[in-house]
Amino acid sequence: MHKEILIGLALGICIFMAILGVNVTPFILLTLFLGGGYYFLLTQGKLSYSSFGNRNKAGERLKFEDIGGQDSAINELKEALQFLIKPDKMDSLGIRPLKGVLLVGPPGTGKTLMARAAAGYTNAAFLSASGSEFIEMYAGVGAKRIRRLFNDARKKASALPGKSAIIFIDELEILGAKRGNNSGHMEYDQTLNQLLVEMDGIMMDDDTQILIIGATNRADILDSALVRPGRFDRMVQVSLPDRAGRRRILAIHTENKPLKDNAVLDEVARATFGLSGAHLESLANEAAILAMRESCDIIETRHFTEAIDKVLLGEKNERKPSAIETARVCIHEAGHALVSELLEPGSVSSFTIIPRGGALGFMRKSARDDQYLFTLPELENQIKVTLGGAIAEQIKFSNRSTGASNDFMQAWRIAREIIESGLSSLGIVFIDDIPTQVLYDECKNIIKRLEEQTMQLLKYNYILLERIADTIFEEETIDQQRFQQLLAG
């Protein structure tokens, strides 16, 4: 109301001065300039956040049951939410409420979904923002947005029966990185300081209860004042799902998809070790797209198999290698497959020379149970398999190609893992204290020794190696059954 009165008064004065013959142009320009500056400063403090992000596709509140593969993390989060649901009981037991919960884990594991489900679980107001939305080039803007966010949370919470709100801040590492690292740009530190002040202001006896949920995949760079007890009290690990978790995630994402046989989900879950929930959702979607391309009414096992390769490596491309390059790719993939099968029978699922993504060919190992610990022989066998392609090229063509560069990088990484785990001739070591030359020499010796063993293995089975290479040259793709026929022959 006051704005309208002031605008009307200024307009009346300008008209009156114009009637008296006074040049009002400078006054109008000055007014526009001041008004524009005021509007700019006003809008810089505003923050665009989502308060309705806790709904699923059907418009219902998202539930923890809609999230698969994170049972332990969900249980930890539910425990932290009890003070929003049963504040009186918490008070009677003398329990200090948790002010903040930090969700830590790789991208795509469901951290945002868990925060939204938390709002549905508690029937609390839900406000969501990204850490990057608080940082601007203008000093004080980020701190103002923090204050506005907490004020809006209190207002929304006071309008609900439970008088509670959840503030979710994604990409917290942008907002909460260690202070002093951004020299010359104090806006980062001021914004973080304001967040710390607001979190300190959350009390049990307040009219409204607020819980901060942060999500990050870089907890190591967060400021220590942010993650201390009394602010982000609890750190919940949202890790990659295990086999049972992947099966549950696939079941959720295929509920609306016609499958020929639900048993295929067991095999897909078995073959997708290391994939996140986001990867699995994309895999189920790609399988449906492949079925649509073939005008199929149901999704079959081969569609999922193709989808796995597409998610991991990318779409098939139209590269047309020359005849000599194709022959080299054939012997390369045959080397990988033969070494893997000789060292671990039944380990090869399929291999192909059809280009996909950035690879001219690839081998996919058969599904096995999730494995988190490896012995020295198992790590050495992994190195032998990675070296098998380049050594097969050397035996066939008396030289190697650049196609093995990624294999060598992987072999070197595994060799470093052997040293870090205390399984090398150096014994138990701390990797940061090893001189660079010593580390290099040890990795080189490990790879050279395994390279010689792989060379002997392939030379001894050279006739079989050539038979496999000739077959894949003709058929382009060899599955497990066909591969076993070649070995038996």
Number of structurally distinct domains: 4
The CATH topology of the largest domain, please?
Rossmann fold
Radius of gyration: 31 Å
Q: Can you count the helices?
A: 19
Unreliably modeled segments: 39-45
SSE sequence, one letter per element: HHHHHEHEHEHHEEHHHHHEEHHHHEH
Average predicted confidence as pLDDT: 83
Structural class designation = alpha/beta
Straight-line N-to-C gap: 91 Å
Strand content: 5-15%
Characterize the overall form. elongated
The helical percent reads 40-55%
The named CATH superfamily of the largest domain = P-loop containing nucleotide triphosphate hydrolases
What CATH architecture of the largest domain would you give?
3-Layer(aba) Sandwich
Strand segment tally: 8
CATH class division of the largest domain: Alpha Beta
Tell me the major beta sheet.
Answer: 5 strands, parallel
Q: Main sheet: which strands, in order across?
A: 2-3-4-1-5
Q: Any overview of this molecule?
A:
With 489 residues, this protein is of the alpha/beta class. The chain has four domains: 43 residues; 174 residues, P-loop containing nucleotide triphosphate hydrolases (Rossmann fold, 3-Layer(aba) Sandwich); 71 residues, Helicase, Ruva Protein, domain 3, CATH 1.10.8; 166 residues, Up-down Bundle (Methane Monooxygenase Hydroxylase, Chain G, domain 1), CATH 1.20.58.760. The protein is built from 19 helices and eight strands. A five-stranded parallel β-sheet has the order 2-3-4-1-5, with helices on both faces. A three-stranded antiparallel β-sheet has the order 7-6-8. Strand 2, helix 7 and strand 3 form a beta-alpha-beta unit. Helix 15 runs antiparallel to helix 16 and helix 15 packs across helix 17. The longest helix is centred in the C-terminal third of the chain and has 25 residues. It is elongated, with a radius of gyration of 31 Å.
